[in-house]
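Listing S7. Sequence submitted for prediction.
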Amino acid sequence: MIVSELILPLFMIFLTLGLGIYAAAVLDRLLAARQRIPVADSAWRSPLSNAAWLLLQQTNTTEAPDTPAWQLAPALYLSLAAMGLSLVPWSPTLIATDLATGLVLWGSFEALATVVIFLQGWAANAHLALIGAYRYVALGLSYLLISMFVLIGVALPAESLRFIDVVEAQAPLWHVIGQPLGLPLFLVVGLGLTFWGPLNLADSSDLSGGTSSEISGPLRLVWQMARMAMLVAFSAVAATAFLGGWLGPWLPGPVWVLLKTLGVLALLLWLGRSMPRVAPERCVTLMWVVLLPLAFVDLIWAGTLALLMA
């Protein structure tokens, strides 16, 4: 009985990851085409042809790398994305991992992602990759603190850390409306967690690829897939925490979760293509002086609203 109850949630996780990774790659190439950035192939075929090309490439190596850690880091990052997606409820009864501390566990995945990204840069034993890793660690704490305040804010009305309770607490009013600062701040966390677009400081072009500057072939493919998978997992968590998860008229709950996840994913990709990359020193100031105080304001607002509605 337990095995049969897990089959459908696991199927939804792998289906969402697979479709989400492909959709993210296609959307990113469509946005690149709109900006007149050359794309070698059709946006629909390009992700598949690029994956096939990387699979056939020879794997690079450096002098005295930590080979086991170097090969394990992309798989670990992909695993964190899959485990994060397992926390997302598709309906009141359809969820792979229903924990009383689901929000806390997601926060731990964000912290572990920092360790894995640093491991990716450190294990290569190359200076550009190591600089990219240290860049990410220097900013990782600010992302975690902003995420912590914002997620506590969505937990207060539910009086629970379960994702299911957070969704059910949004039946009268979605958190994107009741806590207007929450979703924008959480999207910043998502851009930082996946080092995407304006917050791509770990794998940026000024470092010739940063933490991924020395990898090629299948390892590079897994690293790219892991970044896309983390974008998908983060989008699903954002849709659950701020957009009401499965709540919606007419359509089944899982369909609403998929549609909202794709909507947040498209928004993150558009932000990544539309906004210029922030300089590292300015990013530190932005996080600690502007966004972190705003996250604290969001927490006070959420607590006050929860008291008034109690």
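Caption to Listing S7: primary sequence and predicted structure tokens for the chain studied. The chain has one domain: 2-309. Residues 2-309 form one domain.
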